[in-house]
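Can't paste images in this forum, so I'm doing it all in text. The chain is below; anyone willing to post the predicted structure tokens underneath?
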Amino acid sequence: MLEPSGNNELPPIPGKRYFTIGEVSDLCGVKPHVLRYWEQEFPQLAPVKRAGNRRYYQRQDVMIVRQIRELLYQQGFTIGGARQQLSGKETKTDTSRSRQVVRQIRQELEDLLKVMKA
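Text version of the structure:
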């Protein structure tokens, strides 16, 4: 999606080791061609490439995509500004990442609690 979505809540990241570009697209609300473009613009985003040039993103890659999406779509940064923000502000990035991980774990625990109660 090229424009910000009205829904700021993204789905929780499943506990998998690798994700395809389609899965990351769904998890982050960004189209695959945008992800491929961001790979060229952001050195922090470097998914593993396997046979046939297929991309496999790891959990930290998905979190970086979500950070880039937030910087560009919610905070209104340009590509250059977002790149500078990601590379220059490690403490802010770490705090944002930590909050995202805590939110993710909390959601997973709440889901598990619902399953256990049922």
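Strands lie at 48-49, 55-56. The chain has one domain: 21-117.
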